[in-house]
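Morning run. Coffee first, then this:
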Amino acid sequence: MGVALKESSGAVREDRLWQRHADMARLGGTPKGGVNRQALSAEDAAARNLLMEWARARGFSVFTDAIGNLFVRRDGTDAKAPPVMSGSHMDSQPTGGRFDGMYGVLAAFEALEALEDAGIRTRRPVIAVAWTNEEGSRFQPGAMGSAVFAGIYRLDEMLATKDWQGVALKDALAETLKAAPAPMREGPPGFDVGFYVEAHIEQGPRLEAASKTIGVVTAIQGSRRYIVEIDGEEAHAGTTPRAARKDAFVAATRIAAAMYEATTDADDTLRFTIGRVEVSPGSPNTVPGKVTFTIDMRHPDDGMLETHEKKLRDIVARKARPCPARIERVTNVAPTLFDPRVIDLVRNKAQALKLAHMDMPSGAGHDAMHIARLCPAGMIFVPCERGVSHNESENATPSDLAAGARVLVAVLQELANR
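And here it is:
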């Protein structure tokens, strides 16, 4: 077993993994070197087709499910054994980077290729997965494909969601599956999984600052997302006195300022972000009649999230006057604690490969937080330059990406033989 593990991790090819990232980055590539590959877009379909092309060339089987998750399967010797699964997502932020999500998909695929190149058979099948709509930038909520797979969100409700232009996810999914056809798994999404391990860039500065190559992820902090809507009254900008206005934007700025103040904590643990603001009708000479904005709030303690949600609701009730306003919670993801057995295995494989590593929680949400409700799960982080992510300048080194993939394949092989 020891020799086999050494051969599988040694079969990871840094050049191949780096070239796969370059090939994917051209699909939705932006002039500044990032990507704009929205969920269930033409660019997303192109990425799916490319992954399936690579998979079929290696003799792996591919299939999809009713929410559009894409699976690449390498068979094990026991066809009935629940598979070991690894992956992430291929959709991006509108001005996203080349590695967020895509690294997890390509590291998982590289693990399949490394096992194949080393001629190693595993008892369990090993599956690489690309989850649908993790980012949530086009369709909300995010991490949708993995949540539907895990039975956390209802399929029919997610298919009915619409993007900011009013396009239903059901229709966008149908177009994507037409453009990137794959065999459809019968029945609702979800099947038995033995273990799940997700590789990802850190999206923060801690690994780089500590000169560590591998982050052994112990947990993911909880997150909640909200939409705030304020209804004002459209009026002429030149003739309507300010005292007579119901200016939705003025109310929105009062609410936002109070929220930022109320969510500031001394140890800078709570994360509060207003990331999207829409002002209607959007005319320079019309008093805004409606404002909609989003809130992203995160903390490792679910009780603290609940406390701060009450503060947000109180602020909306008090600060919107004279405009009617409402706040709706659209997602509520509890903190995730990963399985100690998977955490220990990641740590041990990093040590065996002589890679500098450290234990750490994840500040960002990932698909692993949903799959961890189904089976023992964990994550592997690698550094990203200056901790920058959700940004076109996001960057990582070929050697760090390959190091994470070597740890991943070693972990997957051992789990696939349990």
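The CA atoms of residues 89 and 130 lie 5 Å apart. Good start to the day.
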